[in-house]
Design a protein that fits this description.
There is one protein chain. By secondary structure, this protein is an alpha/beta fold. The protein has one domain: 3-Layer(aba) Sandwich (Rossmann fold), CATH 3.40.50.360. Helix content is 30%, strand content 23%. The protein has four helices and nine strands; from the N terminus they run βαβββαβαββββα. Strands 1, 2, 3, 4, 5, 6 and 9 form a seven-stranded mixed sheet that branches. Strands 7-8 form a two-stranded antiparallel sheet. The chain is globular.
Length: 164
Amino acid sequence: MIGIFYGSATGSTADVAYKLAEALGIDSTNVFDVAKVAPSKLGDYDVLLLGTSTWGVGDMEDDWEDFINGAEELDLKDKKIAVFGCGDESMSDSFCSGVGKLYQRMQKTGATFIAPYNTDGYEYNQTDAKIDGQIVGLLIDNVNHPDLTQAKVDEWAKIVKEAI
């Protein structure tokens, strides 16, 4: 079973989370705002989609701060995780870097990470979401390229399905 967990200050990442749920055929009761749920809820799912917006100079959305402290202590070695998030390519030196930080922090859990993706259509200088030469998940820019969002969500959902 797939659970989607997100942190979203402006609603953009929440919107992507629900678009992903629809694309994957996941009931909305399996979509969670990390500000309103305990990290232990991650254990209820076999596949976890974790999403964050990027704030400041490449930070995860604030609601992730408390949640991640508990989440990274969990043993999720039998789980699969895919990461996604939103950013603004005009923040060219930290585009969607919160996604990279989320990915790095969750490494401690022992989970298997799935569904790397591309950043086709976006222009930026640097992102912490590029690790070992690969973008670790779905990066979305609803500020400058809202026209690309649905197609990217749909394509990434197919990648997630193939990986599980």
